[in-house]
Amino acid sequence: MKSRYIAPVLVGAGIALALYSCGSTIPKKAVAITNFDKTKYLGKWYEIARLDFKYEKGLNNVTAEYSLNDNGTIKVDNKGYDFKKNKWEQSIGKAKFVKADNIGMLKVSFFGPFYAGYNVIAVEDNYKYALVVGESLKYMWILSRETTIPENIKADFLIKAREIGFNISDLVWVKQDKIN
């Protein structure tokens, strides 16, 4: 009798997994930028601050480098230095636009078909500084083309993040030290 429920439960779980892996969500009060210029966004970014999570825990000197793949997706090359293990960690993935390529709403994957939200919600006019959020209030990054960020831009990003609902007191301020 119970075996007749297995197929519907598995189908429902599959649908839920497929919807979850779309990674096309954004926190309720956040808005991805429009007039996004993917060409200007490509290149190397330094992580200035983040809400910590298991894949970046303990890493400093974190960078993200974005380049175009032949198929139109964006190659994501994240690197960070683990001082406790005395070694570099690297993760390479791909990003796709969720809507149009002029809206800063993307989904990124480092693990096969599983995607997570990557939403650019603020970027300075010359694409030198960016505020990026994930699909929930658990994920946020402040990025810069340099290893530092001006205080006024940092303050603006922190105000915007707090207004959306992020707990900015939980931010990890990434060290960008020279490593021999």
TrEMBL record:
A lipid is attached at residue 22 (N-palmitoyl cysteine). SUPFAM superfamilies: Lipocalins. Keywords: Cell outer membrane, Lipid-binding, Lipoprotein, Membrane, Palmitate, Signal. One of its GO terms (cellular component) is cell outer membrane. InterPro entries: Calycin (IPR012674), Lipocalin_ApoD (IPR022271), Lipocalin_bac (IPR002446), Lipocalin_Blc-like_dom (IPR047202), Lipocalin_CS (IPR022272), Lipocln_cytosolic_FA-bd_dom (IPR000566). Residues 37-176 form the Lipocalin/cytosolic fatty-acid binding domain. This is Outer membrane lipoprotein Blc. It comes from Flavobacterium araucananum. The lineage of its organism: Bacteria, Pseudomonadati, Bacteroidota, Flavobacteriia, Flavobacteriales.
